[in-house]
Design a protein that fits this description.
CATH architecture of the largest domain: 3-Layer(aba) Sandwich
Strand content: 25-35%
Largest sheet: 6 strands, mixed
CATH class of the largest domain: Alpha Beta
CATH topology of the largest domain: Rossmann fold
Number of helices: 10
Shape: globular
């Protein structure tokens, strides 16, 4: 595990994301420390996915976005990926008609070729043995949990330093949810910084170094994972019962 440094790895300052007349994110500021798991919480429509989209150049954004000292403002998505940020989107979004092999290849082919690409694929098959078993199978025939593993593996093919995970446990069986959260911790311990959007607040805060709560596109609460887990707002909104 890489120790967290005093300087933020990712800094978001006064971020706004607007789709036409709808402002999905308004004036959001947050920091992600190197080597940490940072969680974004909020109800559907709170602006969490729009925040991740802004960080990857996939949504129109205003404000300051700095990653490891580099401004991301105005960068194209492919440039942002090359600088070390990868997104695993909500709903997995694997290419269902393509094989597991082809999905992994597409995750890395824009960045590396030949032996390096082959080595990265092999590394992901070691990380996710079930994908080795399903290597030549169409992705659309995989179970939901297997598709989630493939989606994460595909994101990791670009060798990111910061991985954005959008609802990775959504719709999965409890046993697979356990595997997902174990994987997040394993990736962090391997030196990958994680920014996690997750509806399962209890599990997310249990592994989070820091968390931020969004409501209607605005930041309403922040703190350590333990602080948020103990807050009245979080208990009433997410942990009741």
């Amino acid at each position: 595990m890489i120790p967290m440094s005093s300087a933020p790895f990712l800094t978001v300052t006064d971020l706004s994301v607007r789709y036409g007349a709808v402002e999905a994110v308004h004036g959001l500021s947050l920091e992600v420390e190197r080597g940490s798991v940072t969680v974004l919480l909020g109800a559907n429509g709170a602006g969490k996915s729009s925040t991740l989209a802004a960080l990857t150049g996939l949504a129109p954004a205003k404000g300051g976005l700095h990653f490891d000292g580099l401004s991301l403002t105005g960068m194209m998505p492919e440039e942002i990926v090359r600088h070390g940020i990868a997104l695993c989107p909500e709903g997995r979004r694997v290419f269902p008609s393509l094989s597991v092999a082809d999905n992994l290849h597409l995750g890395g082919a824009a960045h590396v070729k030949g032996e390096v690409l082959a080595a990265r694929i092999e590394a992901e098959l070691d990380r996710f043995p079930i994908l080795r078993e399903r290597f030549h199978q169409r992705a659309g025939l995989l179970s939901g949990g297997e598709q989630q593993m493939l989606a994460i593996a595909r994101a990791l093919m670009s060798a990111p330093r910061l991985l954005l995970l959008d609802e990775p446990s959504l719709g999965l069986a409890p046993k697979v949810v356990d595997q997902v959260f174990d994987l997040v911790l394993s990736l962090r311990d391997q030196g990958i910084t994680i920014l996690l959007v997750e509806q399962n607040a209890e599990r997310a805060l249990d592994i989070a170094n820091r968390g931020y709560v969004l409501q209607s596109g605005r930041l309403v609460l922040s703190g350590s994972g333990a602080e948020l887990a103990g807050s009245d707002l979080i208990r009433q909104a997410y942990l009741a019962g």
